[in-house]
Amino acid sequence: MEKILVIGAAGQLGSELTKSLSELYGGEQVIATDLNEAAKSKFDYCRFEVLDIMDQEAAKDLIKKENVKQIYHLAAVLSATGEKKPLFAWDLNMDSLLFVLEMAREFKLDKVYWPSSIAVFGPNTPKINTPQYCVKEPNTVYGISKQAGERWCEYYFQKYHVDVRSLRYPGLIGYKSLPGGGTTDYAVDIYHKAIAGEKFNCFLREDSYLPMMYMPDAIKATLDLMHAPSESVKIRSSYNLSAISFAPKDIYQSILKHYPNFEIEYNPDFRQAIADSWPDSIDDSPAQKDWGWKPDYDLDKMTKDILENLPNFSF
Ligand code: NAD
Fold first, then answer.
1. Which residue from 12, 20, 121 has its CB within 8 A of the most atoms of ligand 1, so it is best to mutate?
2. Residue 5 has pLDDT above 80, yes or no
3. What is this structure's pTM?
4. Catalytic one among 72, 113, 133, 142?
5. Based on the domain organization, do 223 and 187 belong to the same domain?
6. Second label for 71, Cα 20 to 30 Å away, from 92, 103, 188, 259?
């Protein structure tokens, strides 16, 4: 039987994407993998294996033994953590992607999915409605690794016909797991504080606009892209993807409609400089045109959904 391998499955994106893949293909077809055994409890609906993607021998054995035909490669060091460990972030983000692309070439895999990020943009990029094609001079190691990764994806598609597909996610907001060290994490943490009845200490300025997306939209976009006919996927570096653009003051106002006594204070830290180098909003017209992308959630619809469901969710 052909299998789908998810690398870094226990993270913020992986825990929800792996569930959707299991619902679509069946839990026996999906192999969730992550660094340690502790993650196993999240995956009672599909198979789970411990796999450090830097252990290339073990990864290659698994791909061969299980007849893996699709890989979703989600393991990465994210933006804020990457700034604390730049060389480690570069090694993990680049070596793992090149290894996965090599596996796809060698074993003629059907498809590979690898996420990029709005971190590929930089201070000289147009900030409003950032176009698909424009100046990209990322100034974080995370952004540099994503930009280089995009070039490698296109290279493997053109030279070796590897069917690799990618999205430049904006900040992803979900309530089913805790975020993994990104600059947009505040927009997840703020809901936890509102529900706990605590004041929120925001590490970005109140007017710091960033492109964001609710997790169900990110999952929909990923699966829509992966299920699109190959000839519709015209961009093989990574697609711009857009849903909601908001600042901390906007998400605060949206939460106030449900929790009128909620309080916030703003104490920008090193993450403000990262946020300042990223776009305010994104033009995703190629994704709309090529494979019909359209988000379902705006800010208030997302807030309502999170505040209704988060209190009943157990980690
Ligand atoms: P996350 O940090 O929550 O999850 C990453 C997972 O990878 C973790 O479970 C971690 O244990 C695992 N991992 C780390 N090193 C590994 C290794 N050597 N071998 C195997 N697994 C390893 O990250 P996320 O938010 O789920 O992001 C997933 C992907 O989406 C990443 O490529 C990230 O760059 C991209 N992305 C995320 C966002 C966002 O806002 N969350 C935005 C843009 C792009």
1. 12
2. yes
3. 0.96
4. 142
5. no
6. 188
Instruction: Please tell me the distance between residue 13's alpha carbon and the centre of ligand 1 in angstroms.
Output: 7
Q: Which residues contact 160 (CB under 8 A, 6 or more apart)?
A: 105
Q: Is 101 in the pocket of ligand 1 (CB under 6 A)?
A: no
Number of domains in the chain: 2
The per-residue pLDDT for range 43-66, each reduced to its tens digit, is 999 999 999 999 999 999 999 999
Residue 314 clears pLDDT 80, i.e. is over it: no
Please name the helix (run of DSSP H) or strand (run of DSSP E) that holds residue 40, with its range, or none: none
Q: Is 186 one of the annotated active-site residues of the chain?
A: no
Amino acid (1-letter code) at residue 226: M
Quote the ligand 1 centre to 75 CA distance (angstroms): 4
Within this chain, do residues 194 and 161 fall inside the same structural domain, yes or no? no
Residues 81 and 178 reside in one and the same domain: no
Does residue 315 carry a pLDDT above 80?
Answer: no
Distance 147 CA to ligand 1 centre (A): 16
Indicate whether 1 pLDDT > 90. Answer: no
Helix residue ranges, H only, the chain: 12-25, 56-65, 79-84, 86-90, 96-106, 141-160, 186-196, 215-227, 248-256, 271-276, 285-291, 299-309
